[in-house]
Design brief:
This protein has one domain. The chain has 2 helices and 6 strands. The longest helix is centred in the middle third of the chain and has 8 residues, at about 40-50. A hairpin with a 3-residue loop joins strand 3 and strand 4 (about 60-65). By secondary structure, the protein is mainly beta. It has a 3-stranded antiparallel beta sheet with strand order 2-1-6. About 5% of the residues are buried.
C-alpha cells in the first residue's frame, strides 16, 4: 500500500478481458477481498499482451507492439486512466468483479497511493 502497510492476498488467478472485440490476458491476479477498487499494473498488462500504453493528460491508447494497431482507446477520468469500454469477464469470475469501475475522486486515490496532499505541495 502507499502507506507501507501490507495486504493479505487470499488467492491468485488469471483471466482474460474482452474489450471491444480484443482479448486481453491478465496473469498473476492478486485477490484482496476488501479492496474498494481493482487496480492494474501497466507493466504486467504490457508483458501479458505484447502491447504498450501511450498516456497523455487527456486520454490513453493501448497499441500492439509489432503492428502499432490500436487495441484500446479511453479518456482520462478525474486524473485516472480507467478501462471502462464495454468489457466482459468469463462467467466464473463475474462475482469477483462487482466493483470494477467504481468511481472515486482523484484526492482519494492520491491519499491511497501515499502521494502528498495539495496542502503539502
Amino acid at each position: 500500500m502507499g502507506n507501507g502497510a501490507g495486504l493479505v492476498i487470499k488467492r491468485t488467478s488469471h483471466t482474460s478481458l474482452q474489450i471491444n472485440k480484443t482479448n486481453f490476458h491478465l496473469s498473476n491476479i492478486l485477490h484482496y477481498p476488501h479492496a474498494s477498487s481493482n487496480l492494474l499494473s501497466i507493466n504486467k498488462f504490457c508483458l501479458d499482451n505484447n502491447c504498450y500504453f501511450i498516456l497523455t493528460s487527456h486520454d490513453f491508447t493501448v497499441k500492439e507492439n509489432q503492428t502499432d494497431q490500436t487495441l484500446l482507446y479511453e479518456q482520462v477520468d478525474n486524473g485516472l486512466y480507467p478501462i471502462t469500454g464495454g468489457f466482459s469477464l468469463p462467467h466464473r469470475i463475474q462475482g469477483l468483479a462487482a466493483k470494477i469501475g467504481e468511481r472515486t475522486i482523484a484526492e482519494q486515490w492520491h491519499s491511497r497511493l501515499g502521494h502528498p496532499s495539495q496542502v503539502v505541495l
